[in-house]
């Protein structure tokens, strides 16, 4: 009996140490993939959705867009893993209201991200195959604006809500330092206010997730694993 209890305690200890590390690794993967994907999109696609679609004729820009879109599913999977591990480790500390907002905003962020990527990919393929004639195509105009709204309004606003809820939970449970939470609040506020004016600010979300993940990994490998 004593041996069984010791074994169970060791397993619990291993899970406590491994879970923050798993969340941090997933967060790093998500952040890196999304930073690369958004960077390629910003460089390849004109910032103004009203501009003609002549940029799609450039094979280099189309290739960059395809690479960016192919990275999105893996980024979404890593983010869901990051979200799931964090929620599972909160356990009895979990606030039902904040946990619901955390889960809902995270899932909606991924859904909007996937929707924008799917629409952009379909639009690019339709232009490449000649089914959409440029430059004065109403279909292109509709698809371009819809993609822009999905990514830069809905997805990023959900990312800001996710940051607010995560930071609030972090302050209450001390799963990461307080200064990380305050940085998250500031970045979330910027995403809510400025995103439609400067598209590069969307990178604040994956950069903050990367910061959280690095802090968790540093605490873990420094011999001070944080209970999540």
Task: Write structural notes for this entry.
Mean pLDDT is 80; it is low at 1-17 and 224-228. The protein has six helices and no strands. Helices cover 79% and strands 0% of the residues. The longest helix is centred in the first third of the chain and has 43 residues, at 2-44. It has helices spanning 2-44, 59-90, 96-128, 138-173, 178-194, 204-221.
Topology, please?
Blueprint: H1 2-44, H2 59-90, H3 96-128, H4 138-173, H5 178-194, H6 204-221
Largest sheet: none
- The amount of beta strand, in percent, is under 5%
In whole angstroms, the N-to-C terminal distance is 29 Å
Mean pLDDT: 80
Protein structure class: mainly alpha
Helix content: over 70%
Task: Please mark out the parts with pLDDT under 50 across 5 or more consecutive residues, or reply none.
Answer: 1-17, 224-228
DSSP helical segment count = 6
Q: What's the shape?
A: elongated
As for the number of domains, it is: 1
Could you tell me the number of beta strands?
A: 0
- Order of SSEs, N→C? HHHHHH
Q: Kindly provide the radius of gyration, computed on alpha-carbon positions and rounded to a whole number of angstroms.
A: 20 Å
Keywords:
228 residues; mainly alpha; 79% helix; elongated; disordered N terminus
């Amino acid at each position: 009996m004593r041996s069984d209890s010791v074994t169970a305690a060791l397993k619990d200890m291993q899970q406590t140490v491994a879970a923050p590390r798993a969340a941090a690794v997933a967060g790093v993967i998500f952040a890196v993939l999304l930073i690369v994907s958004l960077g390629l999109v910003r460089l390849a696609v004109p910032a103004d959705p009203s501009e003609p679609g002549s940029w799609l004729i450039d094979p280099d820009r189309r290739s960059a867009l395809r690479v960016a879109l192919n990275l999105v599913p893996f980024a979404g999977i890593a983010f869901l893993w990051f979200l799931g591990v964090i929620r599972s480790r909160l356990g009895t500390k979990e606030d039902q209201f904040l946990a619901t907002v955390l889960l809902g905003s995270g899932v909606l962020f991924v859904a909007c991200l996937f929707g924008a990527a799917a629409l952009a990919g379909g639009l690019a393929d339709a232009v490449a195959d000649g089914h959409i004639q440029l430059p004065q195509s109403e279909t292109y105009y509709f698809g371009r604006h819809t993609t822009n709204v999905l990514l830069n309004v809905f997805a990023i606003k959900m990312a800001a809500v996710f940051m607010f809820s995560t930071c609030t939970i972090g302050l209450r449970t001390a799963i990461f330092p307080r200064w990380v939470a305050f940085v998250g609040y500031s970045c979330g506020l910027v995403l809510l206010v400025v995103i439609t004016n400067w598209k590069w600010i969307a990178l604040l979300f994956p950069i903050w997730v990367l910061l959280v993940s690095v802090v968790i990994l540093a605490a873990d490998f420094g011999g001070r694993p944080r209970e999540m």
